[in-house]
Specification:
This protein is α/β, with parallel strands linked by helices. It has 2 domains: about 1-145 and about 155-220 and about 310-325, Spore Coat Polysaccharide Biosynthesis Protein SpsA, Chain A (Alpha-Beta Complex), CATH 3.90.550.10; about 240-310. It contains 12 helices and 8 strands. It has helices at about 1-5, 25-40, 60-70, 85-95, 115-125, 145-160, 175-180, 190-200, 220-235, 240-265, 275-310, 325, and strands at about 10-20, 50-55, 75-80, 105, 130-135, 170-175, 205-210, 315-320. An 8-stranded mixed β-sheet has the order 7-5-6-4-1-2-3-8, with helices on both faces. Helix 3 links the parallel strand 2 and strand 3 (about 75-80). Helix 6 (about 145-160) packs parallel to helix 9 and helix 10 (about 240-265) runs antiparallel to helix 11. The relative contact order is 0.14.
């Protein structure tokens, strides 16, 4: 298989979600075009390779910029009907190109991920890999707080049973057969970095250094990172429910011991003193119950959303015509 890949120039689509990126897009688009041209000149990919921008309901001039870029050879774009979030926008792009390419590489628009890692990704594909993860080699450019929270995020995911690659976000290469198999995953609640490993196929890793954002502001503050982590855990693992069950059993055992102690003390004529201790116990048990109900409710809510089977994204515009539209 590796030999067949070596003899074939794959069509590469670079898929880039964009949300309010008017400041950075004119800068990074030149970098992406340069990388495509470079790989074509090195005879690593086909001249039919393209860069696909996915406009995620931007409120600024992002879509107009994408339309202008698409007038040149190597750029194409799609626009979602409304903002659906990074994961849905990325999925929309991947599903759009799965029948057009041999390989796709997803990357953010901000220029923080080292585009030169694409060379090694393509090489690993040509050597027989179907999934190549881009992984940060170090986080020296991050503040201590950001580094600590990010690394804790991945450790928590792994502890909860989510198959996530440490320090890997959404910079990765996927072959077309991985994309076609991944299309069978119909979840509404998306956490792609935890779902891709579930597909299987031969994986590998490329390490790179992440840079500062070239322009504009980050669209992933701490609140969104926490939300993403929570979605990833509850979408791909039932371990929180099991932990609640175990903790509930532990509290029940303590409560049973407390009841025995109270009965024995009463029989022996020893007064059980202190309303404060009793109030504390009641508040503690009530708090545990509310947290448990909240976690269970989160899972029920996700089941509710999944059963609706609403579309995960709707594409309102394209800068190109699909084959079925040309017929």
């Amino acid at each position: 298989m590796a030999g067949t890949k070596k003899n074939h120039k794959p069509i590469l689509y670079i898929v880039i979600p964009c949300y309010n990126e008017q400041e950075v897009l004119p800068i990074t688009s030149k970098l992406f075009e340069g990388k495509v041209r470079e790989l074509i000149e090195k005879k690593k990919i086909s001249d039919s390779s393209r860069v696909l921008f996915v406009n995620d309901g931007s409120k600024d001039d992002t879509w107009n910029i994408i339309q202008e870029l698409s007038k040149t050879k190597y750029f194409e774009g799609i626009s979602l009907s409304r903002n659906r979030g990074h994961q849905n926008a990325l999925l929309a792009g991947l599903m759009e190109v799965k029948d057009l390419c041999d390989i796709s590489i997803s990357i953010d628009c901000d220029g923080q991920d080292d585009i030169n890692a694409m060379d090694e990704m393509v090489e690993k594909y040509l050597d027989g890999c179907d999934v190549v993860y881009g992984v940060r080699s170090k986080r020296e450019s991050d503040t201590f707080f950001k580094r600590f929270t990010a690394e804790s995020f991945y450790k928590l995911l792994n502890f909860m049973g989510v198959e996530a690659v440490f320090n890997h976000a959404d910079y990765r290469l996927l072959s077309s057969r991985v994309l076609k198999e991944f299309a069978e995953y119909k979840e509404v609640n998306l956490f792609l970095r935890g779902m891709i490993p579930l597909v299987g196929f031969k994986p590998d890793t490329v390490y790179y250094e992440r840079h500062e954002r070239l322009a504009g502001e980050s669209h992933y503050p701490l609140s969104k990172m926490l939300s993403l982590a929570f979605d990833g855990i509850t979408s791909l693992s039932i371990k929180p429910i099991r932990l609640i069950t175990m903790f509930g059993g532990f509290v029940a055992i303590l409560s049973f011991i407390g009841v025995l102690y109270s009965v024995i003390a009463k029989i022996r004529g020893q007064a059980v003193t202190g309303w404060a201790s009793m109030t504390s116990i009641l508040c503690f048990v009530s708090g545990v119950q509310m947290i448990s109900l909240g976690m269970i409710g989160e899972y029920i809510g996700k089941i509710y959303l999944e059963t609706k089977q609403r579309p995960r994204f709707i594409i309102s515009e394209r800068t190109f015509k699909r084959k079925e539209e040309e017929k």
